[in-house]
Amino acid sequence: MTLPERKDVPGGDRWNLSKLYPSDAAWEAGLELYRQMSAKIESFKGTLGESADKLKACLDFMTELGMLEERLGYYAHLRQSEDGGDGLTQDMYARYLQTAVQANAAGGYINPEILAVPAHRMDGFIRGLPDYNIPLLKLVRSRPHVLGEAEEKLLALQEEANETANKAFSALTDVDMDFGSLATPEGERPLTQSTFQSFMENPDRQLRQRAYSRFMGVFDAHKNTLAALLGGSVNLDIYKAKARKFPSVRAAHLFPDDVPEAVYDNLISTVHKNLGSLHRYYHLRRRVLGLEKLRMYDTKTPLVKNIRTRHSYEEAAELVLAALAPLGKEYTDTLRAGLFGGWVDRYENKGKHSGGFSAGSYCGDPYILLNYKDDLLRDVFTLAHEAGHSMHSFYSARSNPFQHYNYTIFEAEAASTFNEQLLCKYLAGRADSGDFRAYLTGKQIDDIIATFFRQTMFAEFEHLCHKSAEEGRPLTLDSIRAIYRKLLEEYFGPAMSVEESDELEGLRIPHFYRAFYVYKYATGIAAAISLSRKVLCGGEQARRDYFGFLKSGGSRFPLESLRLAGVDMAGPEPLEDAAALFSSLVDEFEKFLA
Fold first, then answer.
1. 276/287 Cα distance (integer angstroms)
2. 282 CB contacts (<8 Å, ≥6 apart)?
3. Mean predicted lDDT score pLDDT of the chain
């Protein structure tokens, strides 16, 4: 079995990007229009403090330009995601980024000039500009961290170069790395970033070991390059935080969402307090598999045997739609039209971006990238997850003006994981055997581990790496491995034998190139567990509250919008509830396996 080239993927399996642009030629025309419009940016300079009307004229123009920039950027990004090795799409994205950087540099005067308006005068401007009061209030809040015009221009000009580490990591891991293929009872199968998970779930331990060894061996061959890329990304984070006068990188990245650092620390401390139940699960897994010690390649294979699930993409979509029926016909009808009507790029092809994501923009459809495998139940859940993001984008874009439609990642992970919770409930309710219900319990356990415990471990790793560099201890391959090994031993506990190759896992996580992002997966699943319980048990008012959350866009800070939906993420209760659910699932699973 070999992966198809992008040109050989059938049209029905691809997304339809025509809502953005009907063709590459149309995109080129849009890019030229963007260049022409950008020349007008500096014409507003020196006028923004004169009157509310003058400020509005600039903001109206920048909003129109911003919509065009987003449309161009999403199209180029999605085209490049189809095949990272395609020189044409690489060139498109590079030219878009170069043009956007120049435009953003030209507008470097705008925020400093607005912030130079005296406070009492700005208060009047905000009252007189209801369409812009939210972004203006957020800008005023950031006053201590906005620099002068010259400095802002310099920072904007650096943005293209700032993407180097991330782009190099993606090119290396998604395109250049070749993991080869492995002999299996079904024949030779390619080992890729996408198929690796299938191998890790295989019941044949020798096959899992061979796949893991081959996979991590390729990362080992590039470990010094990967360590340099990660270290460079961390150093860049530190530079940007210092330039904007934040006390730390973490503080800088939590500031835009108005999330106190205590929320981050509370997540880590709550998870550490509940590691006993996680260790208990790994001991259970070790006993059931009949092993003296677990290895990393033993942590994903299902413990309930002889359960085979296979769902075509179409069957998976129908399952997801049925599971989301409690959200109402409007929601499921809209999603159905998207899942079968061009939102989704379904299957893996050579050079395609690994994993899955949703890319929702104001003008286009909320597109979904998958690398769907019909033998992985996890991929059905991935479809539900990304559909949650896409429907969040759908409602947000249709309920808000462009300037504050865009919700935060903190909120996004609650909406996506919410859908996974409903899918799990639905599958458990229609399970036709005790074995399959136990299988789903095991799946739910694995999902909470992956999203709550493991993402918190990643968040702690990220924090420790940045803290080390900020305190003058440069990140090296050895220091990265040492930090990661200590966390592996703490989180997996005595049932696991941590080997040298396991330490390299920290070098293959793409999310680390978007600093202090992964913790939102953990807070997201905690919020989703609480929200799904409310919607399933709370009646029509709970459902209306949830839709109010989906439609709020960027009109509120995330803790506030989640609080209005009924969940307070500033306190420990949702985190403790997620940990308690995990412990109860382990109890249930242990009884079944006994």
1. 17
2. 294, 299, 492, 493, 495, 496
3. 94
Q: And the tokens for 159?
A: 């943005």
Token code pair at residue 536: 């399933």
Look-up of token digits 């401390």: 269
Report the distance separating Cα 134 and Cα 555, nearest Å: 7
- pLDDT at 128 exceeding the cut of 70: yes
- Asked whether 554 and 441 are in contact (CB, 8 A), the reply is no
Residue 374: helix, strand or coil by DSSP?
Answer: coil
Q: Which two structure tokens, joined as six digits, stand for 347?
A: 């299957």
Query: Of 42, 179, 180, 199, whose CA–CA distance to 109 is shortest?
Result: 42
Position 30 confidence tier, pLDDT thresholds 50, 70, 90: very high
DSSP label of 294: B
158 three-state secondary structure: coil
Domain locations in the chain?
A: 6-162
- What architecture (CATH level 2) is domain 6-162? Up-down Bundle (1.20)
Tell me which of 69, 70, 348, 386 is the catalytic residue: 386
Instruction: Check: CB of residue 142 under 8 Å from CB of residue 245.
Output: no
Q: Tell me, what amino acid is at 427?
A: L
Q: Catalytic: 113? A: no
- Dig out the tokens for 268 from the structure: 């880590």
CA pair distance 203, 301, nearest whole angstrom: 6
pLDDT value of residue 233: 96
Q: What is the pLDDT of residue 1?
A: 62
Sequence-ordered list of residues with C-beta below 8 angstroms from that of 111, at least 6 positions apart, any chain? 139, 146, 152
* Measured distance CA(248)–CA(486) in Å, rounded: 23
Q: From residue 409, how far is each of 254, 379, 449 by CA, in Å?
A: 11, 21, 20
| Rounded Cα gap, residues 62 and 337, in angstroms | 33
pTM of the model: 0.82
C-alpha pair distances (Å), 477 with each of 65, 215, 461, 465: 43, 19, 14, 11
